[in-house]
Write a structure and sequence with these properties.
alpha+beta, Beta-galactosidase, Chain A, domain 5, Glycosyltransferase, 2 domains, 9-stranded antiparallel β-sheet, 5-stranded antiparallel β-sheet, 22 helices, about 20% strand, globular
Length: about 850
């Protein structure tokens, strides 16, 4: 194939060739300057500096135009109703610390985003290690549900360049993050950020390092095995780093990539002692294992290099990460490799830490490209939560064992399967990346927001021996899955929020979505009669009321799956959305999976929660009423009487329950739901429609006519189920969505920041509560999905682009996407579950494209 650099030829190819094939070849050619590539080659076979056309891209010296934090002073009118809650919350926080546990939401110690993060490494449910776009290792999430935010200086990649006579010409730490103050002073730090570029497209990331004075270019491709519908590989706790080394000199160069890594996660506990390291060598690769313990849970890091393509691997098992680092640095500088192949290490005394290093050296002919591969895995097979009631085995141990000796198996598996992983990732991402109708920014957003499935405190556990699971229960095969509401809101599977986020799991890992549904199913009939003091109103009630959908399945600082409903603010048994969201997810999943056994298993509890919900219709008009408290996911925004948000969920739940009744041939229940739906539709229109949109609620309060961006949430779910029947008045829906776009989107930061939750009819942000003035990232993506379903394509992508661009490009909060943004200066809840709802947009898009097909 000849060079394709001429722009005219490129345009012709765009018109006349298969676009996916063009994407692969032009990326190789454009990036590498036009080297010939055979038509049968693919980037995963010849990774000659290939980087994707799409993704989140920045230079390593990038600075974001705006810095925000979580400092927010409520207005007087917002503050007064919250004073009793705030006082009770102070007592709650004090008692939490007094009893030795951490409050699950601590408004007096909120995180500030660091504007450093990139794609995290690791699969799903086994913990993750964050990586910054400048090259740092940061944000460790190995202990279930707990994060540490340390950037560890000793965890680095170092490049050494030698000529053909083994004379060192260049040596540099490959990070622009900064030089540490108290250690490793002999190392050469601060790689020029202007000479390097980062590209994130989860679960992969690329960093390009140009070394012009040496005519060398490096491309590090970071790959984690997060692969849709592949449950074994997606559970692997580790990643591979594939380095492409391009030599543009007229003579050979010998290039070494050295991976240094220390015990622990950068915190004070690293000095607790007891860690030790050992080397290993297996056919084709070798490296070092670091044995240690986190919170009493044994864990082994495995760092290794591959001998593929003639590369040589060397290592040292121990150096002091708090020394000047000269022992390691000088050895690399002198030899270009590390000459310890059999060294072992004694167990360290308390108060000491250790680091190790693995070096892969390759010879690169003139004007050619070679590769070096390194891997990082961790084996923490058995975990417990803070109360320690049970011990669990992580899901990956199903394939690799739970005896604590899986690190070398994992490393071998990573090296043997990384090429296949990339092929599967590429096959998954290709249809979206090559869809010329989708905006470029969206091709970054849709994949990068998926980071949260792995890095959202996710746990994936084998069933506990005490569990009695039915024959059709997917947890028998796929285990228990949980992820946190947020990095700061430490509750697993927060159900009102998961309702939005669940599209990611339902579309990509449907058995994990089913696992959550069966977990919720199991809890509905349970009861916990321990009395809880609810912080919102000071009333006491059972922690879990029988025949109600729980808010969450527990807090990692307690004992999740046993102590459910960790959320302490409201009596969630009276929340108006939880029951309905269970019904809607049951029907949505049935529409996706076409599994009648699933409906059969869910049906008894669907009837129970629907019967409970019918009790909330106090006047018998078919439409449920809110209780004059924040009794739904907007847990500081009071709804009184029928509301647009809960009312739309109720109409959708009635329709869905009727359809499931028909699947079950339950004529009586189908008739009941059909009759109730007819009444409710009339009441919804009569009590809430104002001629332009649906009122926030039917009360006489001044904010009752607020334009709520989420007012048609229930319709979104029906459209996602493929429902075309007119459950909601079509003309009214079109008018309401147009009003939301014109007001909540375009009058909010001039349409550049998504959609604000509430807007007054005169075009001002609704300031009745802090949540009404927020833009919720996940709600914005859900709204955009509904707009797509309703044919508002341009409006949908403009709405979604505003929130994505603000998070990733303006305030630098990518890979820690917050729950909420304010019009300026502030955000709330770092690292949050709800933005996974962006996969609802993809589902809407795919449904739309299917309708176009002949």
């Amino acid at each position: 194939m000849s060079n394709c650099n001429d722009s005219g030829i490129v345009r012709m190819l765009l018109r006349w060739t298969d676009y996916a094939f063009f994407l692969e070849l032009t990326e190789v050619n454009v990036v590498m300057g036009g080297d010939n590539v055979e038509e049968t080659e693919r980037p995963w076979k010849k990774n000659s500096g290939w980087i994707p056309r799409y993704g989140w891209k920045v230079k390593l010296d990038h600075e974001f135009p705006e810095t925000r934090d979580q400092t927010l002073w409520p207005k007087i009118n917002q503050l007064l109703p919250l004073i009793p809650l705030a006082l009770r919350y102070l007592v709650y926080v004090f008692m939490s610390f007094w009893t030795g546990r951490r409050p699950l939401m601590n408004p007096w110690n909120m995180l500030t985003g660091k504007q450093i993060y990139g794609v995290p490494i690791g699969g799903i449910g086994g913990g993750t290690i964050g990586r910054g776009f400048k090259g740092e290792f940061c944000r460790y999430q190995l202990v279930p549900g707990q994060y540490t935010y340390h950037t560890v200086p000793a965890n680095q990649f170092i490049v050494t360049v030698q000529n053909g006579n083994n004379k060192t010409l260049y040596q540099q730490v490959l990070s622009s993050h900064g030089k540490p103050k108290n250690c490793l002073s002999s190392w050469k730090w601060l790689f020029s950020g202007s000479d390097a570029e980062y590209c994130a497209l989860f679960p992969r990331a690329w960093t390009v390092y140009n070394i012009p004075e040496q005519k060398i270019r490096l491309v590090c491709r970071q790959v984690s095995p997060v692969i849709p519908h592949n449950y074994k590989d997606s559970s692997v706790p580790g990643a591979v780093f594939i380095w492409s080394v391009e030599n543009r000199n007229d003579e050979v160069r010998k290039v070494s990539i050295t991976f240094t890594f220390k015990n622990g996660n950068g915190g004070e506990e690293d000095r607790a002692g007891g860690c030790w390291s050992e080397s290993f060598h297996q056919p084709g690769h070798g490296g070092v294992l670091i044995h240690q313990s986190f919170k009493g849970m044994p864990c082994t890091y495995g760092i290794a290099g591959s001998e593929k393509n003639g590369s040589t691997v060397s290592w040292i098992t121990k150096f002091d990460p708090w020394s000047d680092g000269s022992e390691l640095w000088d050895k690399l500088n002198k030899f270009g490799h590390l000459n310890d192949h059999s060294e072992s290490s004694e167990k360290l005394e308390p108060g000491k830490e250790l680091a190790c290093a693995v070096c892969v050296k390759c010879e690169v002919p003139k004007n050619e490209i070679s590769e070096a591969e390194l891997a990082l895995v961790w084996d923490m097979p058995k975990i417990h939560f803070v109360l320690g009631c049970r011990q669990y085995s992580r899901y990956y141990t199903k394939y690799f064992g739970d005896d604590g000796n899986a690190s070398m198996k994992l490393i071998k598996y990573v090296f043997e399967n990384s090429a296949r992983w990339e092929k599967e990732i590429d096959n998954w991402q290709r249809p979206i990346l090559t869809d010329v109708e989708l905006p470029d920014w969206y091709k970054s957003a849709i994949f990068n927001e998926l980071y949260y499935v792995a890095d959202g405190g996710s746990i994936w556990l084998l069933p506990h021996e005490s569990n009695e699971l039915g024959a059709s229960d997917p947890r028998q095969v796929y285990g228990h899955f949980g992820y946190l509401e947020g990095h700061e809101y430490t509750m697993y599977n927060t159900y009102d929020v998961h309702f939005y986020a669940s599209f990611a799991l339902a579309l990509l890992w449907p058995r994990l979505q089913e696992s959550i549904q069966y977990e919720i199913l199991e809890t509905i009939g349970s009861e916990d009669t321990s009395m809880r003091w609810h912080l919102y109103d000071g009333k006491r009630n059972f922690r879990k009321v029988k025949n109600s959908v729980p808010h969450d399945v527990g807090d990692p600082y307690e004992e999740p799956f046993i102590l459910i409903n960790a959320y302490p603010i409201h009596d969630v048994s009276e929340w108006k959305d939880l029951n309905l969201k269970f019904v809607l997810q049951c029907y949505r999943d049935y529409c996706l999976f076409a599994d009648e056994q699933y409906v059969k298993n869910m049906w008894p509890k669907v009837q129970i929660v629907m019967h409970k919900a019918m009790e909330w219709d106090k006047d018998g008009d078919g439409l449920i009423e809110n209780g004059g408290m924040p009794d739904q996911t907007y847990d500081s925004w009071v709804m009184k009487g029928p509301s647009a948000y809960c009312g739309s969920l109720w109409l959708a739940a009635l329709y869905s329950a009727r359809k499931m009744a028909e699947v079950m041939n339950d004529v009586d229940q189908a008739a009941l739901y059909e009759e109730t739906l007819k009444k409710a539709k009339g009441a919804f229109e009569t009590k809430l429609w104002n001629g332009e949109y649906y009122n926030f609620d039917s009360s006489s309060d001044t904010n009752s006519r607020s334009i709520m961006s989420d007012q048609l949430c229930g319709l979104w779910y029906l459209r996602a189920c493929g429902v075309t029947e007119e459950v909601f008045n079509g003309k009214h829906v079109a008018s309401a969505l147009r009003k939301i776009f014109d007001f909540n989107v375009m009058k909010f930061k001039n349409g550049t920041m998504g959609a604000v939750n509430g807007m007054t009819p005169d075009g001002k942000i609704d300031m009745v509560t802090v949540q009404s003035e927020e833009a919720w990232t996940g709600v914005v993506y859900g709204l955009a999905a509904l707009m797509l379903h309703e044919g508002m394509v341009e409006e949908a992508f403009k709405t979604a682009h505003g929130i994505y661009n603000t998070v990733y490009n303006t305030i630098g909060m990518g890979f820690e996407t917050p729950e909420a943004l304010y019009v300026e200066k502030s955000y709330r809840a770092v690292g949050y579950m709800r933005p996974l709802s962006i996969w609802g947009i993809q589902h809407a898009w795919e449904q739309r494209q299917k309708k176009k097909l002949p």
